[in-house]
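Quick start: load a record and inspect it. Here is TNF receptorassociated factor 4like:
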Amino acid sequence: MEDHMMYTCSKRLIACIFCKRDFSVAVISDHAGKCGFEPIYCENKCGQRIQRNRLKAHQVNTCCKRIVSCQYCSRNFTADTLQSHHVKCFMFPVPCPNRCVESGDLGIPREDLERHLTDDCGKETRIPKVCEYHEAGCGYRSTDPEGLAAHMREKVAYHLDLMSSLVHKQKGQIKQLLNQVELANTSYDGVLLWKIKNISTKIQESKSSEGLELSP
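Running the structure step on this input writes:
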């Protein structure tokens, strides 16, 4: 009788391995295909196994294979490809390379950028660009890229003179620094001097430290 109750009775209770609830043998097989806690593979073929009662929320909110629309061009993509689409989306907003006021904070649709640069980008609102040799002394700056390019072509000799003067000046500075280093490392009386920063603080720390002694 005991074996019958445990193994063969059609009325015996069996616990579901997923939700842990008890069911009779007559209904356990039907419950097994409906249990909300049973992990099943996502129908979007993302590779994840999700509990049946959470599957719909997963497919709508977090599944990497769910279908989402690009907010700029309204075309549909899977969620895991949307970011790569933005790199080439023709409606994705991009900043004006001249950082002009007309482009605003939201940028310009990628497909309109070339037209914007040709027709709409106001030169008076562009941030001036300096000459590549400004650190050598060239003071030229312009909001017009073509003007800057022409300056670079036409002022080659001028820029060479600036660089030559800069190199000569730097050589003098390097020589002066080397002389100062040599003087700092030279002792004329045979006594080697060491400069210790915060000497008073270090003496106090030494006096208060165990196992350390100060010698005159």
